[in-house]
Amino acid sequence: MQRAIQELGYEAPSPIQAKSIPCLLAGHDLLGQAQTGTGKTAAFALPLLQRIDVTQKRPQALVLVPTRELAIQVAEAFQSYARHMEGFHVLPIYGGQSMDIQLRQLRRGVHVIVATPGRIMDHMRRESLSLDNLGAVVLDEADEMLKMGFIDDVEWILEHTPDDRQVALFSATMPEAVRKVAKRHLHNPEEIKIASKAATVDAIDQVYWYLSESQKLEALTRLLEVEDFDAMIIFVRTKTATVELAEKLEARGYSASPLNGDMNQQLRERTIDRLKKKALDVVVATDVAARGLDVERMSHVVNYDIPYDTEAYIHRIGRTGRAGRKGKAILFVTNRERRLLGAIEKATRKPIKEMQLPSRHAVAERRIEQFKQMLSTIVEDEDLAFFRDTVTDIAREQGLEVLDIAAALTWQAQRERPFIVEDSVTAPPPKAPTREFRERDRDRDRDYGDADKKRKKKDKIREMDADSARYRIEVGREHGVNPKDIVGAIANEGGIPGKRIGHIKLHDTYSFVDLPADLPAQTVKVLQKLWVRNRQLNLRLVD
């Protein structure tokens, strides 16, 4: 593990790590209050890995998280720390993924499970997962699980774990409901509180673009053409994406290289050395591979894929703005990632400005300027006597003006990179209002009277009804459910953005909820088996 930590660029523990690791290694329960971005994933992952017996292919540690995105992120962190632990397996379990895939991996044998509450309850009820050998349970972002209506599910899961298991609970805030869970399920815990602080420096200019997934490559290309940068690191989520995107950028004429966890230390060091010596301008990296990367000339960080948690974002943008220099962090945001943008702003305590995509005119000007510079360099450095004679012969033989020949050659030269750019990424995607629009709407709503607010709400519901369908779920007021519970469960396990979950009507023993009319069959199956307040939804379409 020390070897893995060194390769990842860790030098000294953060405050939460320095306090948590000895406590957890000693076997104590832990109640930790720390903001995202303090390094708490390593604070619990490293001591848990220390106690894993890889010869026992049964779940020995369980980490409960509020969202599928965080489940993936935490599982990837475990895998990174355990990269030299031969035979180690970690499995993220969340709704929306094929149950067959998860069952197959469980049968193969796993040591650590990182899960959202709903899906792990499904496995426990169908007896496809046994927690009898569990030595430790971690509740990560407990306050978020409370907000999403999962706290009762968390307690149910804890009640089905061995009595002698170790429990660590981490939360950014400590509402009373979270403290009650701690009192019931933690035994004489050590309490750790890390004071929050501003997570980013003023030297970093943070901006974002709204765009669709299919527009990202074209938008990045336009950015590279117009933005003045010294060196740039582009973050993506997967190792495969680092190679694919680097190849696409190289094909477009940029000096780019991937940086991922599959690269050996020698190749990694060679890539970073080329970057420092200005033999390389663009690196496409994963979060793990960029740990410890410190290159003074790194002027720009591009979040090509938005990180799933704010801690990763803070680590990413920390690659720039070093040694007193100014840095720029650019974030690509798709429609379904708007919630993540809000979470990042909250964690960094700094508003992120919307960036306007460079216009076709700006791109054309830059390409023409580069073309002029290339011609000027050729005229100064090359012997053009033969080519002048050739042009003169063409003009005489075909009766052409020299200016027309130059124009034809210019047209030929710009075919690969046209001066006139297609306007394919100028408009933001539908249903993605800018922050200015959101703030304006909020201000306007404050000024409207109650009657006008009701009219607007009805108009919004009617508009949503046009592309939504009504579903019945078998949970209601008698079961203690509220709309927030339903929205949280469906958004998390079904992968449906909260904005697309419409009107919810509660009855005593059942409820109605409006969902997108084009809901995929696989998502419907997931939601049918979803449990809320210890009730299976049994979701079905209302005729």
UniProtKB/TrEMBL annotation:
| Annotated Basic and acidic residues bias | 433-453
User: What catalytic activity does the UniProt entry give for this protein?
Assistant: ATP + H2O = ADP + phosphate + H(+)
Question: Which keywords label this protein?
Answer: ATP-binding, Cytoplasm, Helicase, Hydrolase, Nucleotide-binding, RNA-binding, Stress response
Gene name tied to this protein: deaD-1
Record-listed E.C. numbers: 3.6.4.13
This protein's name: ATP-dependent RNA helicase DeaD
Locations listed in the record: Cytoplasm
Which family is annotated?
Belongs to the DEAD box helicase family. DeaD/CsdA subfamily.
Q: Provide the leader sequence positions.
A: none
Query: What GO terms are given for molecular function?
Result: ATP binding; hydrolase activity; RNA helicase activity; RNA strand annealing activity
Which SMART domains would you find in this protein's record? DEXDc (SM00487), HELICc (SM00490)
Write down the superkingdom of origin: Bacteria
Q: Which residues form the Helicase C-terminal domain?
A: 203-363
